[in-house]
Amino acid sequence: MSDTCILTFLGDIYLPKAYRSSIDLENYVVNLEYPITSHTIGVSGKINLKSSKNFLKETLKRNPLAVCLANNHILDYGDAGFDQTISVLAEDSIHSFGCGHITDNYNNPLYLELSGVSLALLGYACQSTSPPPDINLVGISTINKRRIFEDIASAKSHGANRIIVNLHWGAEEISVPKPSDVNLARSIIDAGADLIIGHHAHCIQSHEKYKGKYIFYGLGNCVFPDLNVACNFNTNTQLPEGQYIKKQKSWNKISLMVNYDVITESVQINKMCFDGRQLKYKRNILTSTSKVKLNVRNLSNIEFRYKLMYKLCILRLMLINYLSNPRMIKVKDIRLIFQNIS
Predict the structure, then answer these.
(1) CB atoms < 10 A from the CB of 339, how many?
(2) How far is CA 231 from CA 40, 47, 238, in A?
(3) Which among 19, 73, 22 is positioned nearest to 50, based on CA atoms?
(4) Which one, out of 27, 101, 268, 340, has a CA that is 20 to 30 A from the CA of 139?
(5) Residue ranges per domain, the chain?
(6) Residue 310 or 254, more confident
(7) Edge-first strand listing for the sheet containing 162-168
């Protein structure tokens, strides 16, 4: 990509090592879903992701323009892990936003300029994603409508031409956004945002155009390999009490690339696939008639679709897990199945 007025957005990324990519990127922003740190003591009560080195350039051919840090894993190794991450990013001239010291408003907004256009990047994580609590003065900017509106107003007063809001939210593995997320996203556009980029669900969620502005509820995983990581650190021994293992499903391996023209606000969407070794294009550019387009006029339809999709996805996961590890079906399994069907 050589057009300098294009800002590219990618979804969740986790790079415990370098991978390959056949995709050329220039000015891109990605959700960095892990700290880059040598620290070994993780936060208790959660799955702990990290990498000992910055593999962004090795994997994606060049470093990103900026990374969103408003997610539920960036503080997995505490404030020390976060501070080291910031140092590593700074060494490679990578900007960040959405997490930081409270006195700096979690590094929101991040101001950049592209092709003479002033950009403001904002990042927030939903409490439903279980971000770790603030550690000392380091914290994640959590989703709060008043805070978001105030940050948008601040960006406007600063002279930003384009305000882009990143939101870490949604139910994991569910391709339809929560009705409450749709309500919130539209209100954020009403408040003055020009583009909304969502992530966290680890699958592609719907997108829509609302009042001339694009809302992407979830871009899916950009690069996210199978997991075998430490979890549940004991606060006394400072050692993990287990390992979290997850083999990524087919829907965890595809994602959207959003190419946003900062001058015209036009959008081009590509579909990508990570096969465990390489990131590549899945197929040709998606059109506005794609099946992932959110095409409903009232929220009652979204409520119905979300509830239906939630039940279907839970049943699908139960079936896949059972087939991968067959066992005798218990009464509680049957009860759970009927609860999701009803």
Answers:
(1) 10
(2) 12, 4, 11
(3) 73
(4) 27
(5) 6-295, 296-342
(6) 254
(7) 110-114, 117-125, 162-168, 195-199, 213-216, 207-210
Topology annotation, domain 6-295: Purple Acid Phosphatase; chain A, domain 2 (3.60.21)
What six digits make up the tokens of 312?
């279907």
Between 38 and 290, the higher pLDDT residue? 38
Amino acid at 272: M
Residue-wise over 4-43: b if at least 16 C-beta within 10 A, else e?
eebbbbbbbbbbbeebebebebebbbbbbbbbbbebebbb
- pLDDT tens-place string over residues 139-173: 999 999 999 999 999 999 999 999 999 999 999 99
Instruction: Name the burial class of residue 51, with classes exposed (0-12), middle (13-18) and buried (19+) by CB atoms within 10 angstroms of its CB.
Output: buried
Q: Which residues of 206-245 are buried (b: 16+ CB within 10 A; e: fewer)?
A: bbbeeeebbbbbbbbbbbbbebebbbbbeeeeeebeeeee
Residue with tokens 């021994």: 237
DSSP code, position 80:
H
Cβ atoms within 10 Å of 113's Cβ, excluding its own: 11
Please say if the pLDDT value at position 290 is more than 60: no
| CB-CB contact of 147 with 58 (8 Å) | no
Q: For the CA atoms of the chain, what is the radius of gyration?
A: 20
**Which pLDDT belongs to residue 288?**
40
Q: Which residues contact 305 (CB under 8 A, 6 or more apart)?
A: 176, 296
Here the tokens at position 54 are 């910055």
H/E run at residue 60? helix 56-60
CA 52 to chain centre: 21
Contact 48, 25 (CB under 8 A): no
Quote the pTM value. 0.89
Question: What pLDDT, on a 0 to 100 scale, did the predictor assign at position 314?
Answer: 72
